[in-house]
Specification:
102 residues
Length: 102
């Protein structure tokens, strides 16, 4: 029989990192507007602003996809927590908690 090792802390770090990426995408236009104001040249500022705003639809799609992945990672963590409890209960002879008890 093979051993299955799941490093839940890696799953948690992935969720944290994805959350950071999602927030950056969500705030990209605001950040680009700040950068556009800071460059000190009107035409260059407009190019910066235009570049960021032209990505709105694609960025929205990416945010939706990242949100779905975050949900999948939550589900993975929850399911492995349940399996871990059930396996531990089996080793100790205690009754396993009902499914979804977490």
């Amino acid at each position: 029989m093979s051993d299955l090792i799941v490093e839940i802390d890696v799953v948690q770090r992935m969720k944290i990192d994805l959350g950071r990426v999602r927030r950056e995408f969500e705030n990209a236009n605001e950040r680009s507007d700040e950068v556009a104001e800071a460059v000190g040249h009107r035409a260059l500022g407009e190019r910066v602003r235009g570049f960021a705003h032209n990505w709105d639809n694609r960025r929205k799609d990416l945010v939706e996809q990242i949100t779905q992945i975050e949900g999948h990672l939550d589900n993975i963590q929850e399911q492995f927590d349940i399996i871990d409890i059930e396996l531990a209960s089996g080793l100790t002879g205690n009754a396993a908690p009902p499914a979804g008890a977490m």
